[in-house]
Design brief:
Order of helices and strands: HHHHHHHHHHHHH
Number of strands: 0
Mean pLDDT: 80
Helix content: over 70%
Structural class: mainly alpha
Shape: elongated
Strand content: under 5%
Radius of gyration: 25 Å
Largest sheet: none
Number of helices: 13
Distance between the termini: 56 Å
């Protein structure tokens, strides 16, 4: 999808990969090496281990560290879509299903509360899908921000964003693609750094438990890794807001460019435009001719949908992040107590 854009700006791509992927991966590998060599955060012991190595051993260790960083960066870059979907809330499994239902219910209640406040909070409403379509809500803030951007062309123009976006992106001007790529890079960088910080906390805490080190190191590594992971996730949310807004702007400003590229004339009225995009998406998705008399009934209707009955199986009014912090605190206290009993 980004082939034409990347071919024109290879230097920009290299800088983004270096700053957003390779450098965080190198820092992660170096931090893990220090923790493993120093049996925790004993930097002095790690330095003594480094001083005791010969010159050739240091060169091999440095090369191994660089190769490990490149490997982590490659895996992180290849899994960026899977990581994004994980943070959006596309989970499977019985336990994940319970968390998904609770997260969706919490965000629906928050969205309903925002609709009851003055118009000064209208900016926050753009981070959620329409409350008349409860099936579009996701259990996380990131998922709702991106789902709202995906829902925007469906509600406004009756077009399927999943079908139209790959075609529209090919004809966007260079300035727009550069802006979108920068915003998406900030989003992916924040999520990738969040994963690395969480992994560092897990590895460091496990090392301290294995070595039966001080409980203060365990709490510092575990809670510190989880806290920095949460901060990285919040920075990714800022990138997601910018990216979602640019996606809306791309549909608003350049949808007629796609119409002309397809050899058609822009529709003359909003009603004709909605019918045009709906018929075109049916043709792309199901192969139904655009001049077919009777199309399947549109499922993307702005008519309010009755809300499903509330689920009272989880009554604690916390978002998914609240349960994350509760679990993080409980595991930290349990690990510290276990180390104190040795």
């Amino acid at each position: 999808m980004l082939g034409a854009f990347l071919g024109q700006t290879p230097g920009l791509l290299d800088r983004r990969f270096l700053l957003h992927v390779l450098l965080p991966s190198l820092g992660f590998c170096l931090s893990v090496a220090v923790v493993l060599a120093g049996s925790g955060l004993n930097v002095g012991q790690a330095l003594r281990t480094w001083d005791g190595m010969t010159g050739s051993a240091r060169a091999l260790a440095g090369l191994a560290l660089l190769l490990a960083a490149c490997l982590v960066a490659s895996v992180l870059s290849g899994c960026r879509m899977a990581i994004c979907r994980l943070f959006e809330g596309y989970w499977t499994g019985r336990a994940a299903g319970a968390a998904l239902r609770h997260g969706v219910a919490w965000h629906r209640r928050r969205c309903d509360a925002l609709h009851r406040v003055p118009a000064s909070r209208d900016g926050a409403l753009s981070r959620y899908p329409l409350p008349t379509r409860p099936e579009d809500f996701r259990p996380t803030r990131l998922g709702n921000v991106l789902r709202s951007a995906e829902q925007y062309p469906q509600v406004r123009y009756s077009m399927d964003a999943v079908l139209v976006w790959p075609r529209l992106y090919q004809i966007l001007p260079d300035r727009m693609t550069a802006t979108l790529a920068a915003a998406r890079a900030d989003l992916d960088a924040g999520l990738g750094l969040s994963v690395l910080c969480l992994l560092f906390g897990v590895v460091g805490a496990a090392e301290v438990l294995w070595e039966q080190g001080p409980w203060s190191w365990f709490l510092l590594l575990w809670w510190g890794g989880c806290f920095t992971a949460y901060l990285s996730y919040r920075s990714a949310l800022a990138g997601a807001h910018v990216y979602a807004q640019h996606v809306r702007v791309a549909f608003d400003l350049h949808r007629y460019d796609l119409v002309r590229q397809l050899g058609d004339e822009p529709p003359s009225s909003p009603e004709a435009e909605r019918d045009y995009w709906y018929r075109l998406c049916q043709f792309w998705h199901r192969g139904i001719p655009r001049d077919h008399v009777q199309l399947p009934a549109a499922t993307e209707s702005p008519v309010p949908v009755p809300a499903p009955p509330p689920d009272y199986t989880l009554r604690i009014p916390l978002p998914v992040s609240g349960y994350f912090w509760t679990l993080t605190t409980a595991l930290g206290v349990a690990g510290a107590v276990a180390l104190g009993l040795y």
